[in-house]
Amino acid sequence: MRAGLIAVAVVATSWAGNGEAAGPTRLARSVELISMGGSSAPREATSVEDSAPPVSGTPDRAIPPDFRVHDLSRRWVEFQMADSFRALPENGGDSGDAPLSAAPIDGTVPAMTAIPVPLWMRGGAMVSAAAPRFVPGCAAVPYRPTGFLEPDAEDRRAGYYALMSNIACEHGIPVGLFDAMIIRESRYRANVFSPRNAFGLTQLMAGTAAGLGVNRYQVEENLWGGAKYLRQQLDHFGQYHLALAAYNAGPGRVRNGLVPQISQTRDYVDNVLFNWSRLSGFQRRAIVLPQVATPPRGPARPTGRMATVSAF
User: Fold this and answer.
1) Which family, according to UniProt (predicted)?
2) How far apart are the C-alpha atoms of 35 and 52, rounded to whole Å?
């Protein structure tokens, strides 16, 4: 047994020595290229040594366009898109489409088009009636009933109308506007206080009356102070709905040409403008249709009850 193991070891040692003396054996690799597209002559298989050629940074042939390696960073994609749009023909090609233009990639935002926003979208329901700018002036308007006031309020209005209209014209404001404002403020009650301590026909606050130099407890001066204060707001803001908002909520709350987001102020502006339009007769339009000859009627039906039976 021991002699057999020694013999196997000797044979293995001699085989290893013969292998080292013979040296390393180089194996050949073959690469076969198969063309799938055209009728070009087949290429012969070439043998390549085991040692691979060094990889260079630049390929030997141009890479096909479909296999280009792209930098997918945001700036590079923007550049590629803009460059591809610039490369389009100006006439739009055969498709008849309009030519495309490259979008700027410098991060700038194109200026917005000057689209006028209707006033009714920026204010209350009746703000669209205030689109014209204020132009000082006054036309004497004779008294006529409003048609929507209670009888007692209409009686008070009739008693103060001449004085009210004269003061309005003295300050160059429309009589109908001043009339509608007083209707909203006090309904022509000369001795009424508001929950915020405003007083009189035009509901002047104590500080406002002092700044205007009027006695708010005297009817004529109360009207004169209200007309002067309204004229100041008309001169400052230039539009009726903004001036009314400033009269109600204060000039400091009217910013950026908008009625402040105060429900009471918005309702005030809407109501005054609506009543002004009614006082001016804009809401009292009737359409008179021409008379059309009516066809002759048949014999008159007898009065009384009649039963009609229909069979289907």
Assistant:
1) Belongs to the virb1 family. Belongs to the transglycosylase Slt family.
2) 23
Alpha carbons 185 and 179: distance in angstroms, whole number:
10
Count structural domains, the chain. 1
| Active-site option among 44, 150, 154, 185 | 185
Number of other CB atoms surrounding residue 227 within 10 Å: 24
Cα distance between residue 223 and residue 281, in whole Å: 24
Phi, psi of 47 (to 5 degrees): -95, 140
pLDDT of residue 278: 94
Provide the pLDDT for residue 250. 95
Domain with 191, as residue range(s), is: 149-279
pTM over the 0.85 mark: no
Whether 153 is in a domain gets the answer yes
Q: Does residue 173 sit within a domain? A: yes
Q: Could you confirm whether 185 is annotated as catalytic? A: yes
Type of residue found at 75: R
Distance CA 220, CA 99 (A): 71
Terminal CA-CA length for the chain: 124
213: domain CATH number is 1.10.530.10
